[in-house]
Structures are given as C-alpha cells and as structure tokens.
Amino acid sequence: MRLILMGTGAFAIPAFRALLHSQHVILAIVTRPVPAREGRQHAPANPVRQSFVGTGIPMYAPADVNDASSQSALRELAPDLFVVCDYGQLLADSTLQIARLGGVNLHGSLLPRYRGAAPVNWAIWNGDIETGVTVIHMTAQLDGGPCLAVARTPIGPEEDAPALEERLAQLGVEPVLQAIGRLAQWDGRSVLGTRQDPSQASRARRLRKSDGEVDWSQPATRLVNQVRALRPWPGTFTTWLREARSLRLMLERVSVVPDAAGDAGAVPGTVVAVDGHVIIVATGQGRLAIHQVKPAGKRALEVPEFLRGYSLRAGDRLGPAGGTAG
Questions:
Q1: Considering the entire predicted model, what is its pTM?
Q2: pLDDT exceeding 90 applies to what percent of the chain?
Q3: Can you list the domains of the chain with their CATH numbers?
Q4: Please, are residues 134 and 37 in contact by the beta-carbon 8 Å criterion?
C-alpha cells in the first residue's frame, strides 16, 4: 500500500515507526506547521517532526491541509491511504477522496465514547476503569467513521494521563496494521467495519486552562482523578485564601483519605488537619490528602518542606481565586 502518514503529537510515533518498517510504501509524512512565537528562542515541540526528520521520508507542513495547493500536492503523490493520528487538523471529505481508500485514524478511546481532542484525559477524570484504542475508516464527521479494529485495556488506579497515553500509543500499533490489512483486501463495495452507535457517543473536548481549578464541592475521588487527568497541562490548582495575599497552589500529588466520615459538617475547601506530613481538606464527599504542592512561581514541594516556608493551618480555606478567607 502507498501510504501518507499524518500526525503531529507523540501519540502517533509508535504506529508510524511500525509502518516505516513494514512492507508498505511511505510516500510522505504530513504534520502541523510550527507556529512562530515572537520573543521565544525555541519553537514549540513537534514530536513527529523531531522523530522522523532524519529518515529521508518527505515531510510537509501545510497551514491548511484542505486548501487547493495542499490537495494538489497530495494528489500528485497518488496515495492509496491516509493514516492519521494525533494530527490536529480535520480532513475534509474532498481531501479524504484524494486517497484511493480514504483514510484511517487511530483514536485513543473506545469509540463512540470520547470523540474529540482529549479522550485520555476525560476517561481518567470521569473515573473510567477501562479504555482502549479504535481505528476508524474516516468520514467527514469527527471520529464518527466505522470501526475497523479495537484494543482494550484497564486504566490503573494511579495512572495519569501521560502514562496512559504512552501505553495506548503502543497498544495502537497492531490495530493500525490490522485496519490497513482489512482495507488492502476490501472490495470497495461490501460493508466495511462496525458502524458506531450515535446514541452512545460522548464528547472529549479540548482541555482549557480553567479546567484545572478545583471545585471543592466535588467528591474527593473525583479530585484525585482530576489531578491524574490534567497532567501535564493545565495541571490542577486551587487558591489559598490568606488574609494578607492569596496564593495559587498546584496540587501535584493527592489521595483520598479513607474512612473520612468525621468531618461531614466541614465546609468544602476547609483545611481540617495539618500534621506536618500531609494537608487534609474537606470536599463535597470525603477528605482529600495533599502530599505535594507547587506554590505559584516555585518548584513542587513535599508537604513537610512546604510547611517550613508557609504557615498554612487547620481552619484555613482553599477555594477559587477572588474568594474570601473564612
């Protein structure tokens, strides 16, 4: 098969490497352009570019893969199939039609659950115990095409987004190869793959910086999931509502306090105990133990080191910026 690979993020690298060592012909790699950043010495990372720039495979970075000039360049390569993963642009139907067999996409969820840009993060934040990868035959609908290959895996109770994404990227290699094999044998007329059930679809929108702020009315278990889900960006943060000046704290390592029924009457966000090694905070359900924090402008600190420099005490309040100290 004559393939054009389209990807930008690290999630694409294991599958692309496997394809470079397969029997398939790799015509080109298409990735996102590196945006100019005024005043910055180093351009933002592009993992696919960094991984494959020395392979001798032609690499293209169109600003818009769907414009006329980009489509013309793709058409000249006469691909059989586009293989898309963590690319960052949606392919128009007119672009997909350039390849004889259209395109396949490796997605980091069990579709139709978590269609969108951040499936790994939302699966962890929502407390899912299982996830996986799906390879679809692409349509113009976002992550809505028929499923060609699926692989499932449990989510570890302490696994965070970077660790799970790395595992899923490796898990996706074999399904990508299977999907391409199915397309190579397709007659172009029979039903291909398994149609998604739209009634089971859910969205995994792109993360926002504001997603990181802690809502202390949520259960402690969900806040632990939030910390796991939002690494490395945007991170999970709260504000220590001090009388002198509020201080933003990034929550780096937390856990649920077992058997925390004793503080059922405490207002969520209230520090209920500080024992020198851990900070205990009331939530909407249960208590949260904070083991490591990162004060604004500082490095991450274990709680004992943090308490040597900051006089946080039981009764202090944590909450949204602009709140009032109790």
A1: 0.94
A2: 88
A3: 2-200 (3.40.50.170), 209-319 (3.10.25.10)
A4: no
